[in-house]
Design a protein that fits this description.
The complex is a heterodimer of chains A (about 220) and B (about 70).
Chain A (H helix, E strand, L loop, with lengths): L21 E4 L2 E4 L7 E6 L6 H19 L2 E7 L3 H15 L7 E3 L4 H5 L14 E6 L5 E7 L7 H17 L13 E3 L5 H7 L5 E4 L2 E4 L2
Parallel strand pairs in A: 3-4, 4-5
Antiparallel strand pairs in A: 1-2, 3-6, 6-7, 8-10, 9-10
Chain B lengths: L11 H11 L5 H8 L3 H13 L3 E4 L2 E4 L1 H7 L1
Classes of the chains: A alpha+beta (about 220), B mainly alpha (about 70).
Chain lengths: ~220, ~70
């Protein structure tokens, strides 16, 4: 009887190093390590020349300058060929006037897609779903978002997450629900009774000792 | 190939990197700033230029080779 071997691939998790890769892109051969020192939004799309993906690429191009201000690079991916990617981005520019300024991985052998868990057979056995990996400047995965094939991504939320993560890193704070830059942030909860007693005297805006906010 | 065209000539970004190397800049960060290219493109491009024999890496710094110099003259 023929033995069926199944390779178990551990999917990336938050707080772990992003899986290394070397991939053919529309900007040449790129390695993950080429992005070291910058934040990176690595995202996958199901296929070139498809309607939802086209709206997303235009939207990603629109937030590209805002991401650059935050030291963030963008890198797209699908299992299409580099020729297909080139033809599609040229078509998008010709039809809409929007130039796609970031590279796109041509993951024909699905090496990167599988390493990042971008193919969900329940949605499609051959295409990548809409994934977003936010990777920090030390190449650690900080956020993973998955969207189904039929739902285009929300660019505001991607920018908001980048702002929240960078604010957390710079100030050792957390951010509350629906937080936007400029709003109050959450002070980490105290670990001891003594710290809890001190906390309520520290002049923060507190609901109680475990939920205190401050302005930055 | 992002820096070298199929005809063996440097692309616009490849030529910018070679000119930066010729001017004495040796780190990817310096070259990115001088050439106005993203750092990831420069790191990848320097790898490509090195593999093609147009640049060398010595003591952590890049420098242009004679072959690289010929291409931008």
């Amino acid at each position: 009887m023929e033995e069926v071997k199944e390779q178990i691939v551990s999917l990336p998790r938050l707080g772990e190093p992003a899986p290394a890769f070397e991939a053919v892109t529309t900007h040449g051969v790129l390695k993950l390590e080429d992005f070291k020192g910058s934040w990176l939004v690595l995202f996958s799309h199901p296929a070139d020349f498809t309607p939802v993906c086209t709206t997303e690429f235009i939207a990603f191009a629109e937030i590209h300058p805002e991401l650059q201000k935050r030291g963030v690079e963008l890198l797209g991916l699908s299992v299409d060929s580099v020729s297909s990617h080139i033809a599609w981005v040229r078509n998008v520019e010709e039809k809409t006037g929007v130039k796609i300024p970031f590279p796109i991985i041509a993951d024909l052998n699905k090496e990167v897609s599988l390493a990042y868990g971008m193919i969900h057979p329940g949605q499609s056995k051959t295409e990548t779903v809409r994934c977003v990996f936010i990777i920090d400047d030390k190449q650690v995965i900080r956020t993973i978002l998955y969207y189904p094939l039929t739902t285009g991504r929300n660019m505001d939320e991607i920018l908001r997450i980048v702002d929240a993560l960078q604010t957390t890193d710079a100030n050792a704070v957390a951010t509350p629900a629906n937080w936007r830059p400029g709003e109050m942030v959450v002070v980490p909860p105290p670990n001891t009774q003594e710290m809890a007693e001190e906390r309520v005297r520290q002049g923060y805006e507190c609901v109680d000792w475990y939920l205190c906010k401050k302005k930055l | 190939m992002a820096c070298i065209s199929p005809d063996g000539k440097p692309t616009e970004s490849g030529a910018k990197m070679l000119r930066a190397l010729k001017s004495g800049l040796g780190s990817p960060e310096e070259i990115a700033k001088d050439a106005g290219l993203p750092l990831f493109r420069v790191r990848s491009g320097l790898r490509e230029l090195t593999q093609a024999g147009l640049a060398n890496r010595k003591n952590g710094k890049y420098e242009i080779t004679d072959k690289g110099t010929e291409l931008i003259e």
